[in-house]
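Re: the 128-residue chain
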Amino acid sequence: MTIQNFTSTGDAPRVVRIEALAFHDAAGNIRHMHHHVVLEGAAPRSIHDMLDDVKAQALALNNDVSELQVLHIQEPFNFSARHRVDVKKGVLVELREPVRLKKASAAPAKRKAKKAVKQKPRKKAKKR
């Protein structure tokens, strides 16, 4: 599996998979999303360990997730798109493709260079 959003250079370990925890309300609206990157050679973490960390981080951001339901996502999904949770099926649903601006993904437009304006030489001050 190739994950396009993450790259590494040098001797960094390879990304094996990315898991996510989607905290959602009863209607399936995602209120908080947490991504967990699993690197090659790393020991797997239990869902309970991840939940403890996420709840502490969310509270630090003034985001109380204690009343929300959690969906553990282990299969690849489009990070750039908006999602919701289908509460009946217990799956992540992509709402729509992300809107991309043409200039956002392209190289910055080149600006025309201003024409050089010839400046008049400065007169030297007379010595007294």
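Residues 84 and 90 are 10 Å apart (CA to CA).
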